[in-house]
Structures are given as C-alpha cells and as structure tokens.
Specification:
By secondary structure, the protein is an alpha/beta fold. The protein is 51% helix and 10% strand. A five-stranded parallel sheet has the order 2-3-1-4-5, sandwiched between helices.
C-alpha cells in the first residue's frame, strides 16, 4: 500500500469512528491544528512526526489523530454525495483561472463556488470534531475564532526550498525554483480569491516556524507543546 493510500485509510478510519453531524462547539472541544505552508517547507514531515507524538498522549483526546491534506477533497466530495471525478476541479496549488475556465467550458456542476462552500462546511465540521491536522485550503481562516484551534504557518527561505525540491524530485535547481514559485503563487491566489486576505500575513497565525532554523523533530516538539498549552 502506498503512503498516500495508507494516509487516506487512516483518515477513513477516523471518519468512520468519530465524525458526527455539526453541533455547537463544546467548551472542552478536542484540539485541532491548521497548518499553512510554503512549498517544500517540510510541513508534511513535521505533521506526521507530530501525530506520532499526539497519538501517545491521551491528554489531548482519547481518539487517534488524523491528517487531512489532499485527501480532504475525498472527504468533501463524500460529505456532499459528489462524484470523485470532481476532485480534479478542486486544486489548491494550481492555477485557479485555468480550472475556472475548464469549469465554464465543460459546464461542471456544482460550480467551483459551490465546491468552495462545501469545502468550508467540511473543514468546519472536522475542526469541531477535533484531533485533526488540517493542511492548507484556507483552513486557518475557515476555522478562525474557534477556541479549540491552533493556527500555524510553516516557512523556509526560497533557496533552501529549491535545494530540497531539486533533491526530492531529482530535477534541476531551475526547474525546482519554477515549481516552488508556481505552488506558492497558486496557494496564495486561492486564499486571496476566496477570502480576500494575504496568505503570508503573520498576524493570521498563532505561530510561525522557520524550518531553516529548526529541524523536523524540533518543529514537531514545539507544536506538541503548543497544543498541550492551548
């Protein structure tokens, strides 16, 4: 089983055993973490390392933790009884004008705007359930104001991210730089077009971590302690 399939199966098990209909947020609701990130800032590695720590500490909830990133799209479509083929029209890190044009040409239903509202609904429900890590898609804005949610941004200098991308993808530094710019710009455009806010605004987050200064384990430790103090 691939790592991506394993991640989705873990989330599927979480949903089956814990997901409930939306209800008022309890005063002692389990903690949720949102992670906004720059491309190749090691966010996924940090999240996976963090979840291993969280699963061993019952003080932050009796349930196992789940990580939602690209697999969040499957949950959104499932929540609203939509076909899997619509997943390709819901990118966060690709040009929205292109997908919008495809949407108009093919007459995709529901519209991209409706799909966005479905996204907000699912993220809010997951945030209320707690014991989840939500990566991207403006989750830090959608769940803003929920007292049980910690919002974190993961960053790193551009040149360091280029080195990481070139090594991980086995591509040239020029190709890596182009890939990173495209991903960063598309994610920023997603947030700007849907929420009219800059993704880079440090005041939108409770904590900003620079992975040029701290390694994966240290970042996971910082987040673990921050969640325990939430």
């Amino acid at each position: 089983m691939s790592s991506q399939s394993h991640a989705y199966e873990r989330c599927r098990a979480f949903i089956d055993s814990n997901f409930v209909e939306s209800s008022p947020l309890a005063e002692e609701a389990p903690i949720t973490l949102t992670l906004s990130r720059q491309a190749f800032s090691k966010t996924h590695a940090i999240a996976e390392s963090l979840i291993k720590r969280l699963d061993t500490d019952s003080s932050l909830g009796q349930r196992k933790w789940a990580l939602f990133d690209r697999n969040l799209v499957h949950k959104i479509l499932e929540d609203h009884d939509l076909p899997d083929r619509l997943a390709k029209y819901m990118p966060e890190d690709r040009d929205r004008e292109f997908t919008g044009a495809i949407n108009e040409i093919l007459g995709v239903h529901p519209s991209l705007w409706k799909l966005f509202h479905y996204t907000c609904d699912t993220i809010q429900k997951l945030a209320k359930v707690g014991n989840v890590v939500l990566i991207g898609r403006g989750a830090h804005i959608i769940s803003r104001g929920m007292p049980n949610v910690l919002h974190v941004r993961i960053i790193a200098p551009f040149e360091l991210r280029v080195q990481r991308a070139a090594q991980m993808l086995d591509i040239t530094h020029t190709e890596a730089g182009k890939r990173i710019r495209q991903d960063d710009q598309a994610r920023a455009a997603f947030v700007r077009s849907h929420f009219d806010e800059p993704l880079e605004d440090p005041y939108a987050y409770d904590l900003v971590l620079n992975t040029a200064s701290i390694d994966t384990n240290m970042a996971a430790d910082i987040l673990f302690k921050a969640l325990k103090c939430r």
